[in-house]
Amino acid sequence: xxxxxxxxxxxxxxxxxxxxxxxxxxxxxxxxxxxxxxxxxxxxxxxxxxxxxxxxxxxxxxxxxxxxxxxxxxxxxxxxxxxxxxxxxxxxxxxxxxxxxxxxxxxxxxxxxxxxxxxxxxxxxxxxxxxxxxxxxxxxxxxxxxxxxxxxxxxxxxxxxxxxxxxxxxxxxxxxxxxxxxxxxxxxxxxxxxxxxxxxxxxxxxxxxxxxxxxxxxxxxxxxxxxxxxxxxxxxxxxxxxxxxxxxxxxxxxxxxxxxxxxxxxxxxxxxxxxxxxxxxxxxxxxxxxxxxxxxxxxxxxxxxxxxxxxxxxxxxxxxx
Amino acid sequence: xxxxxxxxxxxxxxxxxxxxxxxxxxxxxxxxxxxxxxxxxxxxxxxxxxxxxxxxxxxxxxxxxxxxxxxxxxxxxxxxxxxxxxxxxxxxxxxxxxxxxxxxxxxxxxxxxxxxxxxxxxxxxxxxxxxxxxxxxxxxxxxxxxxxxxxxxxxxxxxxxxxxxxxxxxxxxxxxxxxxxxxxxxxxxxxxxxxxxxxxxxxxxxxxxxxxxxxxxxxxxxxxxxxxxxxxxxxxxxxxxxxxxxxxxxxxxxxxxxxxxxxxxxxxxxxxxxxxxxxxxxxxxxxxxxxxxxxxxxxxxxxxxxxxxxxxxxxxxxxxxxxxxxxxxxxxx
Lengths: 321, 333
Fold this sequence. Notes:
The complex is a heterodimer of chains A (321) and B (333).
Chain A: E1 5-18, E2 24-38, E3 43-47, H1 54-61, E4 69-74, E5 77-78, H2 84-91, E6 94-97, H3 101-104, H4 111-123, H5 127-140, H6 157-169, E7 175-179, H7 187-204, E8 207-212, H8 215-221, E9 224-229, E10 232-238, H9 239-244, H10 249-257, E11 306-310, E12 313-316
Parallel strand pairs in A: 3-8, 3-9, 6-7, 7-8
Antiparallel strand pairs in A: 1-2, 1-4, 4-5, 9-10, 10-12, 11-12
Helix pairs in contact in A: 4-5, 4-6, 5-6, 6-7
Chain B: E1 2-15, E2 18-31, E3 35-39, H1 46-53, E4 62-71, E5 74-75, H2 81-87, E6 92-95, H3 99-102, H4 109-120, H5 125-138, H6 144-148, H7 157-169, E7 175-179, H8 187-203, E8 207-212, H9 215-221, E9 224-229, E10 232-238, H10 239-244, H11 249-256, E11 305-308, E12 311-313, H12 326-329
Parallel strand pairs in B: 3-8, 3-9, 6-7, 7-8
Antiparallel strand pairs in B: 1-2, 1-4, 4-5, 9-10, 10-12, 11-12
């Protein structure tokens, strides 16, 4: 069976206007030849620092952005080349939950309207049937019928994110993009939402793309993990392997810089030096070489090859070539 | 030796919805050279505590209803505005969360740093510049002279926060308040800034009040931790003791709900959500969410008591002397 979602050499470039009235322009490559796949009941965690292109990947897969090059396959069929009208039939199968529940829920709509809206516009379901569906998903996310006629501002952050999840579930999706769903929440509430998301997957076998900058959260929720740095994936591995034997110097630094909640083992926190370079002036060769501790001569000139160091464990690094 | 002692500080805010008691008898002490972590969820009063120390609470809507803030035996709530201005930035300084919004976008870094120096020291421009350059050098800024001429938008997030650290330390304060200094930064940059911040303050024996919601940062950086919940301090202890044997049910829940980097066990989550402070629960403010609630909890406010010489807890369920060893195996955690 083909994976639910697969991308092949996905590229997204933005034109940045500069100078007087934007007469000069530069190209920013936000996503550079990304290939990934997500199967039923599987969570792919996509981690990276801000500006690494994680969210752009999610938006490209959902056709919320026009892709510059590459293909996105839904169960083996290309969804980028089909017409918008045809794609609408598939839209309900691919859903998204955004980061900030405050701004992704319309403050003037009641919960009933917000959650029922996708079903109404996609399938034209109305009245009693719509109400029933809304009630079912609300129950799934741990909200009760008394919440139906309330407005988003009457809920806490965690509950709002539950509404966001309910809205994604109502169309009966197979693939859901979670774009930093818990980074606006406190830890105790974050735990509730993560448990909810994991529980729903167990029940309905959804395929998840979980985008986050928080490695601990990603570890908790993912089956496989991919690390992005400046628009490209530098390492992919199954969860256990990823944390037990990280290969790419960037991945290793990323894992080492997370402060552990253990005061008995003080870490060296400054693992990496220097800043993320501007995406407008990408370094030649490996993008990570200006910050890499294990930089070699070849890294400055030749882009690193993709190497499979173990089954399902891919690294883009000259160290393993 | 105690540098700052907050004693039973109460602050309320009034708006059209009513009066909320944002801080309720908050007591904290910070020793000289100590790094005190103040943790809690959003809305628990961490930032209000910090801002009250520097008297940055607008009044109205804010109202400091009771308590004292003793800084070197001087009550900051009673000193004149003129004296307060001498203290701010010179004896006590503060770093805010978002470096972009605390730096002025229309002035250069040098302009803004010199201002801090000039307010507190009578120096010539060249001398002030030398001080700034030296400080920027200390925060490991490459090419400090050039940075002085730059505008904030020309710097990256990590560099901006390092400029903030330099700016706050340039007058050699005795207390530094850092309000979520690394929350807006990426994890690799956060590591750099935390390393610089702790190295510089340790070296100069500066006390730090580190406000954060990240238990990892607390564990790695602080000497002592105070945990706040809904406007009250519920537990305070040396950092190792707090992580090894948390006693308040909220602290235990908070520690249990951190996703671990090194294990895959399922996550504990505290049931319910944070109460509103306009109409807080009577008695212990945590009791509606508590799994080990007693009869007294919804009637009587638990005092913050010394359980051991170094450990304070505000919970009816914790006897004097504590219950070490039991904490980790308590029901529900």
